[in-house]
Amino acid sequence: MKLGAMLVRDGRLTQAQVDAAVAHQARKGGRLGTALLELGLLDVDTLTVYLGLELGIPIATRGVLDRAKKAAVRLVSVDYAEKFLCIPLVVQDRQLICAMRDPHDLLALDELSAATGCRIIPRAAAEVRLYYYLERYYGVPRPQRYRTLGDWLAKERRMSGDDVEPPPPPLPGLPPPVEKPVMAPPMSSGPLRAISAAELEDEGLASTQESQDDAQLETAPEVPLIERSAPSRVEEARHAMAHGAAVDSLTSLESAPPPLDLSSAIQGMKAATARSDIADAIIGFGRGVFEIAALLVVREEVALGWRGFGPSVDLDRIETMLVPLSSPSMFREAIDMEDVFAGAAMPSALHAHLFKILRTSAPRQAVVLPVMIRERIVNLLYGQPIGGGTISDAQVEDLRKLARAAGDAYVRLIALQKQGN
User: Fold this and answer.
1) Is the pLDDT of residue 227 over 60?
2) Exposed, middle or buried, 320 (CB in 10 Å: 0-12/13-18/19+)?
């Protein structure tokens, strides 16, 4: 089924809106998804989900694109990356996963395979996002159309007060900057920039907001691929997590904040100066209640993995989580109730995929806590009680208090950011 037909089928758009986007596409060129973005009919994350459904392949989320591996990027020259608008993500066992504009272009897949010596496994992504990462990783300037679109989308998000998405991390485990960068493949155009220390600092909501709010759609950050001296893995994890960055190949328990009681967690959120501080407080409290947990960010009808922990879970896996909230699930129930869901997870492909990511089986009791800013849900905390048991009524009430404190902390940070502007 075509993209427009699926959007109409699911009630996301009317047929008149799709027709208007098709006419816009005919005038301006590019993909229908780009036209939908330019007309303000769809957001990037929802578009990405539907591209995956249309093409029948997995998608590359913002978190996955932010964590592209150095070895993968080195395999594809700038000429091929620009020619096929593809972003290499991961290479393993002679297989190269790439986010591509045309994932079903067999000639492109064959040519990339011949050039890299790897089997190419494509992933779907939106044009505007691919152009951003082409500029970020290879220094190829975006066409003006996509730069303008990106700037407009980022402005719309700031004006709507949608300031709770985690800031994009640099490439895995890279902060702090070092003196000797490893250069990306030779470029046909555009200079490779030096790393910016500011990109690797935790700037929070109240400072340089434009570099954090939907940064994949704004001016490309100055983050070439670099090497660094290697402190202990636990030290690296603590540093990266403290700065809102993701950590490569490290278990989530090694890098998770320490367990916190409710009072300490609430005090931490009251003192928060960045969204990562709020996440740390939520996860810290969760460690005293749950054996496995994941904190997700809600964007329209999609929830994206952000933080979490579990005995066999690494942070890479958590960031691949993508939960469609329009489908029946325990997440949907928590959203509809605007309260804690605590019960058995209904058998479904969505839940089975979640348990696979978290390397666990369906628990006796699953818990989902919604975190709200006024009437809008911005986070979902999923947890499995310690020891495979159930949580008490008192713990449920504590979770409610935690969610209220988190919502208040987000409101305070947004107010500070607006004052700064």
Assistant:
1) no
2) middle
- The pair of structure tokens assigned to 191 is 């200079």
Amino acid found at 17: Q
Q: What span, in angstroms and rounded, lies between the C-alpha atoms of 363 and 382?
A: 12
CA distance 64 to 59: 9
Tell me what the pLDDT averaged over the chain comes to. Answer: 76
- Nearest residue to 118 (alpha-carbon basis) of 87, 72, 86, 85: 72
Name residue, tokens 């959203």: 335
Predicted TM-score (pTM) of the model is 0.54
Tokens at 363, concatenated = 């628990």
Q: Whose CA is closest to 124, among 144, 148, 97?
A: 97
Do 189 and 269 have their domain in common? no
Query: 226 and 288, same structural domain?
Result: no
Q: Examine the fold and report which residue of 246, 267, 297 is the final residue of a domain before the chain moves on.
A: 246
Domains in the chain: how many in total?
Answer: 2
Q: 400: closest CA among 283, 270, 262, 276?
A: 262
275 shares a domain with 159: no
Q: What is the pLDDT of residues 248-260, one digit of tens each?
A: 434 455 567 889 9
The pLDDT > 70 percentage for the chain reads: 74
Tokens 């329209």 belong to residue: 300
Q: Encoding tokens for residue 134? A: 């082409």
Distance CA 173, CA 230 (A): 10
The DSSP-derived string for 301-364 is: TEEEEEEEE-TT-BHHHHHT-EEETTSSSHHHHHHHHTS-EEEPPPP-HHHHHHHHHTT----S
Q: What is the DSSP letter of 176?
A: S
Of the candidates 205, 183, 157, the residue with the CA atom closest to the CA atom of residue 414: 205
Residue 360 Cα distances to 51, 354, 355, 383, 388, angstroms: 29, 9, 5, 12, 11
Token reading at 419: 């004052």
Rounded to 5°, the CA angle 233-236-239 comes to: 150
Write the DSSP assignment of 197-242 as a string of letters.
GGGGS---TTS-GGGTTTGGGSSPP----B------HHHHHHHHHH
